[in-house]
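EI: anyone free to look at a 165-residue chain?
SC: sure, send it
EI:
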Amino acid sequence: MVGSSFNTFGNSISFFTPSAIVADSFGSAGTMNMQYDAQAPSGLLFSSVMANISVNTFGAGTVLFIEQVFELDGMGNEVGGPIGLLNNNFTSSSAQTFSGAAVLTKQVNRIRVKKAFTLAAPDDTSGLDFASVGIINQSTTVVPEPATVTALALGLAAIARRRRA
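SC: here you go
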């Protein structure tokens, strides 16, 4: 997409899409798809994926947002169906921002996040219809692997036992 960009910081990524616009005079519909893969740091697992989205709609304009999260194997292949789902439908009478979290059905080390935005601005005679996507911020929550938690607990127990002796 012309003019689009992204920025990463820590466990978050922001997408900027200045040309994701449909309107009566620009064309009445369009779909924007995004995808990224992520790997959790060593000893950690993904437990949820959060999205913060800003759109603009006017008249009969709408933006339908759907996000699916998949587990990846070590070769980058999707394993099974989605393990997380998030969606929202924006209209001119709804909030123009959305924040939500897709809590994953299982904690995993590698994920693929697929986003789809369907923008529509029906060309009717009642006035201007407009839909656009502005900023998409994405972040993840990671938790320790069970083996890491067990090792930490055993280490703390050993330290406590040593202090008593």
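EI: The chain has one domain: 5-164.
SC: 👍
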